[in-house]
Amino acid sequence: MSNRASQPEKRPGFFSQIKSLFRFTRESYSWLPWAQIAIVILGVLLGLIAGYLIPPFQIWTLVLWGISGLMLGVLGAMFLMTRLSTSAMYQKIDGMPGATGHVLSTSLGRNWQASETPVGINPKTQDAVYRTVGRGGVVVVGEGARGRLTRLVNDERSKAARVANGVPVTVLYVGHGEGEVAIADLAKTIKKLPKAIDKATMAAVIRRLESVSQSLSSLPIPKGIDPTKVRSQRPR
Length: 236
Description:
The protein is an alpha+beta fold. It has helices at 2-6, 14-28, 32-53, 59-93, 99-106, 146-163, 186-191, 199-212, and strands at 112-114, 120-121, 128-134, 137-143, 169-174. The model is unreliable at 215-221 and 231-236 (pLDDT under 50).
């Protein structure tokens, strides 16, 4: 029993991951299978048409062109599923505590550094404030009811302005109200900020902010969300 318990958990294979991604995406886009079938058929038809029109016309070249069209169609169907899965993920996590941390820690790229753990939180309401630092400066992001976030956001903005003098500090609120940013547009909005500091300054600002940040490990902090785990429970 102990030997089995000590063995690392086996990771799902490639086809198992594709199957899970397909099921996850289909929950939000029920028409996905039909669209994928149409794309594959279209790819095969394009391949056959190309094989028929491009000389010299032979049966074996027509078959090869058909296979090429099939592969092109499969790639197109996979591309569609990937794009829709991202949209489905945003729909699932929209409004969930920790969604902002997940986006900041996974979708900003190497020019920004962020953690899935908030830098400030109201344990009673789960309203939270996150922070990311990049070439565009410091960005403070509020998640929750905007009216209740005022104190948390102002505290974090003041801290950032104090330890990163001269570095621009941008405040964003996640939501669907006026002046707020939808969770699906959060990463794009941050990436569009103009570059204001170099990499050396960015590293220095990160070190200063980390040195003055208080430990929040004892608080019930919502961590980032695994988008594959936000699906509704299937009946057993």
